[in-house]
Amino acid sequence: MESLLFNVAQLLKARVGTSLVNDFHEEDIQLDDDIKAIGPLDGYVRMRRTNQGLLVDGWVELTLELSCNRCLKMFEQPMHVTFEEQFYPTVDVVSGLPLAPFDEDEIFPIDERHQVDLTEAIRQNVLLALPMVTICREDCKGLCPQCGHDLNLGPCGCKPEVDARLSVLNKLLQNET
Ligand SMILES: [Zn+2]
Ligand SMILES: [Zn+2]
Questions:
Q1: CA distances from 177 to 32, 162, 170, 174 (A)
Q2: Ligand closest in space to the Cα of 141
């Protein structure tokens, strides 16, 4: 995604502490095979020169299409996701020579053309920000466990399931009368 690519050659040549900020906007986003985004992505990024590379932080706003864990319908979930990641160069910005690979997993590479690509960092942070249980709305009534009717549309006419222990209690009560 073109708008998530930033050339940082000048920043890598600058003093530690120098920063560069950018707004970005991407019309058509496909972050992940499993999460569908609807509409554009907007964001803000700040990149700061550190001793070894860049400290990159910011936020993105996007809308995801998720399925409700209760009623199984698809719904739109607007998200505001912040991120903070380290990016290290893979080649020396002055000489163009390859640098020793870094072994930390959580570091993102700045490519050989001195570009920061935010796509993967945003994808990971959006996935982390997703709730474990996604529901279309707080009071979603879900589906009837017997007939599968969407209870948000009204009752279905099934008799409520009686808990086995309760029915034993009912029998006891009936015997007493
Ligand atoms: Zn629902
Ligand atoms: Zn039902």
A1: 63, 21, 11, 5
A2: 1
pLDDT in tens, 62-96: 999 999 999 999 999 999 999 999 999 999 999 99
Give the separation between CA 83 and CA 47, rounded to whole angstroms.
Answer: 12
CA–centroid distance, 130 to ligand 1, in Å, is 16
DSSP string, 60-88: EEEEEEEE-TTT--EEEEEEEEEEEEEEE
Q: How far is the CA of 162 from the centre of ligand 2 (A)?
A: 14
User: Is the whole model's pTM more than 0.70, yes or no?
Assistant: yes
- Nearest-angstrom CA–CA distance, 52 and 49: 8
Query: Tokens 């990149």 belong to which residue?
Result: 47
Q: How far is the CA of 68 from the centre of ligand 2 (A)?
A: 18
